Amino acid sequence: MAKQKIKPILPSLREKKRYLAFEVISKNRVNFDSLQKAIYSTALKVLGQLGVAKAGIIVLKDKWQNNRGLIRVSHRNVDNLRTALMFVDKVDNEEVIVRSVGLSGILRKAENKYLMTH
User: Fold this and answer.
1) What pairing do the DSSP bridges indicate for beta strands 58-65 and 17-25?
2) pTM of this prediction?
């Protein structure tokens, strides 16, 4: 019996995503892993398990530099993510402020516009 190839999902049926650029304001540099845990745990508290699952929040590790980074999220849950980021107040017992910088539908555009220091 020949192996059947799985058909890819049509672009019109794929989930639309957005890239939210954020900045962490703190006295010291923030460890990425600790920040990621803080974002996920706060999102769970604010949105619940179902809300986090629907949002599809992914903090992009390779885009983290100089206390700035990108988070991939579903286009319908951008406001929910911004709300969750607002409630992140501590990372490794150090007080921080997580500020939303901008939003883009294209990864490269988000990188160039919000992460590059001019």
Assistant:
1) unpaired
2) 0.87
